[in-house]
Design brief:
Elements (H helix, E strand, L loop, with lengths): L6 E9 L2 E8 L3 H13 L15
Antiparallel strand pairs: 1-2
């Protein structure tokens, strides 16, 4: 599945042996949730953290 409709920006950085990938997403909660679950199931991903910023 492609999630380009909810992924607005990506960032990639290294700190020693650590690699940090970050995504800024906006869109339907269901699609963002699906993406989060897929990332958690991906081989080699140790942690997935979510920060929610509400748009009122």
């Amino acid at each position: 599945m492609d999630y380009q409709e909810v992924i607005l920006n990506t960032s990639h950085t290294h700190q020693g042996e650590w690699c940090l990938e970050s995504l800024f997403c906006q869109g339907a909660g269901e699609r963002v949730r699906e993406l989060t679950y897929r990332l958690r199931d991906f081989d080699g991903v140790n942690r997935v953290k979510i920060m929610v910023i509400r748009d009122n």
